[in-house]
Amino acid sequence: MSSLSRELVFLILQFLEEEKFKESVHKLEKESGFYFNMKYFEEKVLAGEWDEVEKYLAGFTKVDDNRYSMKIFFEIRKQKYLEALDRQDKAKGVEILVSDLKVFSTFNEELYKEITQLLTLNDFRDNEQLSKYGDTKTARGIMLVELKKLIEANPLFRDKLAFPTLKSSRLRTLINQSLNWQHQLCKNPRPNPDIKTLFTDHTCSPTNGPLAPAPVNLPVAAVAKPAAYTPLGAHGPFPATGAAANTSALASWMANTSASSSVQASVVTASSIPIPQNQVPVVKRPRTPPTALGIVDYQNPDHELIKRLRPAQSVEEVTYPASRQQASWSLEYLPRTVAFSLHLGSTVMSMDFHPSHHTLLLVGSVNGEITLWELISRERLFSKPFKIWDMAACSLQFQDASISVTRVAWSPDGNFVGAAFNKHLIHLYAYNGPNDLRQHLEIDAHVGGVNDLAFAHPNKQLCVVTCGDDKLIKVWDLKGRRLFNFEGHEAPVYNICPHHKENIQFIFSTAIDGKIKAWLYDNMGSRVDYNAPGRWCTTMLYSTDGSRLFSCGTSKDGDSYLVEWNESEGSIKRSFVGFRNKSAGVVQFDTTQNHFLAAGDDGQIKFWDMENINVLASTDADGGLQTLPRLRFNREGNLLAVSTADNGFKILANAAGLRSLRAVETHSFEATRSPMESAAIKVSGASSIANASPVNCKVERNSPVNGVDPMNRSIEKPRTVDDVIDKTKPWQLAEIVDPSECRLVTLPESADTSSKVVRLLYTNSGVGMLALGANGIQKLWKWPRNEQNPSGKATANVVPQHWQPNSGLLMTNDVSGVNLEEAVPCIALSKNDSYVMSATGGKVSLFNMMTFKVMTTFMSPPPASTFLAFHPQDNNIIAIGMEDSTIHIYNVRVDEVKSKLKGHQKRVTGLAFSTILNILVSSGADAQLCIWSIDTWEKRKSVAIQIPAGKSPTGDTRVQFHSDQTRLLVIHETQLAMYDASKMERIRQWVPQDAISAPISYAAYSCNSQLIYATFCDGNIGVFDADSLRLRCRIAPSVYNGSQTVYPLVVATHPLDPNQLALGLTDGSVKVIEPTESEGKWGTSPPVDNGVLNGRTTSSSNTSNHTPDQMQR
Question: Which residue intervals make up region (Disordered) (predicted)?
Answer without folding.
Answer: 1076-1113
